[in-house]
Design a protein that fits this description.
This protein starts with a helix and ends with a helix. It has one domain. By secondary structure, the chain is mainly alpha-helical. Helix 2 runs antiparallel to helix 3.
């Protein structure tokens, strides 16, 4: 029936060129019904989806802000750790340098002591060898003197024979050496 009246109303409107109050009221009622249906079936769910989307975006923004704050905190912690590591490395390098200097000084002092000990030992050995050599020469001179004296006593020689005898003994001693 509603369809018939629409079709009739449209035919009447085409025949009358005027404003039809029934059509206006009908269209107004249909528009209000359409709005009510849209509000019930489309507007509510659409607003719910928009609300959910708004909450989702707000949560994402909040999570991003928390992540940014956490990242800033971690960055500060990392900077503090890096600074501490640099200080520790510097301290280790200073300790190693000091220890190296101390070892160098110890090695130098030990080397000087060893050199002094070796020098003193060498000087002592030289002195002993010198004394032995002097003693050996004294013994040889004594032996030669006794030998020459005994030869001179054995023979009473004239000056030429005496010189020849001394010369022969000097040559004999030179050959023994």
């Amino acid at each position: 029936m509603l369809m018939n009246s629409l079709v009739l109303g449209a035919a009447d409107g085409a025949a009358h060129h005027g404003i039809n109050g029934g059509d206006i009221i009908f269209q107004l009622v249909m528009f209000i019904v359409l709005l009510a249906l849209l509000k019930k079936f489309a507007w509510g769910p659409l607003m719910g989806i928009m609300k959910q989307r708004e909450e989702f975006v707000a949560n994402e923004i909040e999570a991003a802000e928390k992540s940014r704050l956490e990242a800033a905190k971690l960055l500060e912690e990392q900077r503090a750790l890096l600074k501490e590591a640099r200080v520790d490395a510097q301290n280790l390098m200073e300790k190693a340098k000091a220890q190296g200097d101390a070892q160098r000084e110890t090695i130098i002092a030990d080397a000087k002591q060893d050199a002094e000990r070796i020098k003193n030992s060498a000087l002592l050995e030289i002195e002993q060898q010198k004394e032995k050599a002097v003693a050996a020469i004294r013994d040889q001179v004594t032996s030669l003197s006794v030998l020459i004296a005994s030869k001179v006593i054995e023979k009473e020689l004239n000056e030429q024979d005496q010189e020849k005898l001394i010369h022969d003994y000097i040559q004999e001693v030179g050959e023994k050496r």
